[in-house]
TrEMBL record:
<dbReference type="InterPro" id="IPR036412">
    <property type="entry name" value="HAD-like_sf"/>
</dbReference>
<dbReference type="InterPro" id="IPR041492">
    <property type="entry name" value="HAD_2"/>
</dbReference>
<dbReference type="InterPro" id="IPR023198">
    <property type="entry name" value="PGP-like_dom2"/>
</dbReference>
<dbReference type="InterPro" id="IPR050155">
    <property type="entry name" value="HAD-like_hydrolase_sf"/>
</dbReference>
<protein>
    <submittedName>
        <fullName>Phosphoglycolate phosphatase-like HAD superfamily hydrolase</fullName>
    </submittedName>
</protein>
<dbReference type="InterPro" id="IPR023214">
    <property type="entry name" value="HAD_sf"/>
</dbReference>
<dbReference type="Pfam" id="PF13419">
    <property type="entry name" value="HAD_2"/>
</dbReference>
């Protein structure tokens, strides 16, 4: 754990989903390969499935930007079908019990909730995907709100977080995430950012500007307990 500044206890915490709470690759990678198999069978895509590293390195971006990197120049029809298939397959794999939260996520959120911290999700993902995770892993009972770019049609996570804070009357909230979009969302709204460095994808440059960097999720409790 690396601290760069003194923090004050917040009214709320806002969590990114992929790479922060959710071990994305547990359902993303099998769904990714199955999606391209289906796209090829439907005549919407030719060639080999793009390397896993491309989609893993794109997590945290808006879906339009992810597909532009994975399938540059793909038609609208192909992108729309890929979105549909990827969501459907990931939800299927979640229901089959293949998905995992990172270690200690549930008990850490329970402890924060019990101490009166309001908890929110702020994700650039699709509404069905983000809400599917919270439902399958029974996080709904701990959350005050689930915000996704897919539901609110925001162009940046900074805009999504601004909307979340306005709608819930929040003056102070920590942004917790593993991507540069999370750093920007917190700082762009004048809030502290906790950077998460434990996913198997991404790199340290994504966390530039974080007030604190944690290397396991349960360290968030230490940060909260030490805050003024």
């Amino acid at each position: 754990m690396h601290n760069q500044s003194v923090l004050h206890k917040p009214q709320a915490m806002m969590f990114d989903m992929d790479g922060t709470l959710f071990e994305t690759e547990t359902v993303l990678l099998p769904a990714y390969h199955r999606t391209f198999e289906q796209l090829r069978s439907e005549g919407l895509y030719e060639g080999e499935t793009p390397p896993e590293s491309i989609i893993l390195g794109s997590l945290g971006m808006l879906l339009e930007d992810i597909w532009a990197r994975v399938m540059p120049g793909a038609s609208r029809q192909t992108v729309d079908r890929a979105n549909e298939l990827l969501l459907e397959l990931q939800l299927q794999f979640m229901e089959e019990g293949l998905s995992r939260l990172y270690p200690h996520v549930e008990e850490t959120l329970e402890t924060l909730h019990a101490q009166g911290v309001r908890l929110f999700i702020a994700s650039n993902g699709l509404e069905g995907y983000v809400k599917g995770i919270t439902r399958v892993h029974q996080l709904d009972r701990l959350l005050d709100g689930v915000y996704s770019a897919g539901e609110y049609q925001t162009e940046t996570k900074t805009e999504l977080v601004r909307l979340l804070m306005e709608q819930h009357g929040l003056q102070s909230a920590w942004m917790v995430g593993d991507r540069s979009s999370d750093m920007e969302a917190g700082k762009g709204n004048g809030q502290p950012v906790i950077g998460c460095r434990y996913a198997d994808f991404g790199d340290d440059s994504e966390l530039a500007g974080a007030d604190v960097i944690i290397t396991s999720f349960e360290q968030l409790l230490d940060v909260f307990n030490k805050a003024k």
